[in-house]
Design goal:
Length: about 300
């Protein structure tokens, strides 16, 4: 099975848990995800199945969208609601304008220190493993980009927000740092991812919906159409001759698409067979062959 599915991840599961459940549901061993979500978080988790797992390398720097809630009054050791409180709990009565003013400092290209409970490595060891042992976790600030961070409402102790960030940004750190900026402490109370790259929440399905669709034989209706993948790359429909050469790793001449460096090659409308890189002029070499000679089933079409 070669496909892309967008899961609406529930709270309480790791991204790896979702991958394992998908493997059991569809009986496909080769399953990966495009961007880790913390267990607390819900929302968009794109999964790649079969040979399309190889597309993951194109999504390592994908932009992400979020909606969530920041709770003020105390920080936690994990920077979210799953952690233990750090310090005494304060009573807060923050105004919307005050929180919005402080939040303005967390937009654009900024320096951000990752949470101690994160996958960032210290001397080869993930920080969260050291943090769980109560060992000192000293992570260096990194450069991140927050393209949008809008505080939409505030009830005195909670702020509701919408954000759009570049890859590598921790919303937990944003919540923690905003609480510190306001002088009352804060942590991420809830987080919902609304988008990753070209994948949005409207395309997402729960694991229960996916299991039901698979049982009823209509899972393919949930697949993301392969022509929607990697929209920055032009799509080329290959002839039988070109498809045969590509599937055997041979370079081919293709139409010139505004001097694009890479293109998606399809056989028919639905079968993504390769990502090809321009060598010179109109000559392209398959950087990644996704379909060998033979039948594939993608987005409900068999060849």
């Amino acid at each position: 099975m070669n496909a892309v599915l967008v899961v609406d991840k529930p709270a309480g599961l790791t991204s790896h848990d979702v991958v394992n459940r998908m493997r059991r549901i569809v009986g496909e061993r080769s399953v990966g995800h495009l961007g880790t979500l913390d267990p607390l978080a819900t929302g968009v988790l794109p999964l790649v199945l079969g040979s399309l797992t190889r597309l993951a390398q194109f999504y390592t720097a994908s932009e992400k969208g979020y909606e969530g809630v920041i709770r003020f009054g105390f920080a936690t050791d994990t920077y979210d609601a799953d952690g233990e409180a750090v310090g005494a709990v304060q009573s807060t009565s923050l105004s919307l304008s005050g929180v919005q003013h402080a939040a303005a400092h967390f937009q654009g290209v900024i320096q951000q220190t990752p949470p101690p409970f994160s996958a960032k490595k210290i001397r080869g060891v993930p920080a969260y493993k050291l943090a769980r042992k109560k060992e000192e976790v000293a992570l260096s600030p990194v450069t991140v980009e927050i393209k949008e961070f809008e505080i939409t409402s505030c009830d005195g102790e909670r702020a509701f927000f919408r954000a759009r960030v570049a890859s590598g940004t921790y919303m937990r750190s944003v919540a923690h740092d905003l609480g510190r900026e306001l002088g009352c402490g804060g942590h991420l109370a809830s987080l919902r991812r609304t988008g990753v790259a070209e994948f949005g929440i409207t395309e997402a399905h729960t694991l229960e919906q996916i299991a039901e669709a698979h049982f009823e034989g209509r899972l393919e209706e949930m697949f993301v159409h392969p022509r929607k993948l990697l929209p920055a790359m032009p799509s080329v429909t290959a002839t039988d001759e070109v498809a045969a050469l590509i599937r055997n790793g041979r370079a081919v001449n293709l139409p010139d698409f505004s001097r694009a460096k890479q293109v998606k090659l399809f056989y028919g409308q639905n079968e993504l067979i390769a990502i090809a890189t321009r060598v010179a002029g109109t000559l392209f070499h398959p950087k990644m062959v996704l379909a060998a000679e033979g039948a594939l089933k993608v987005a409900g079409v068999e060849r």
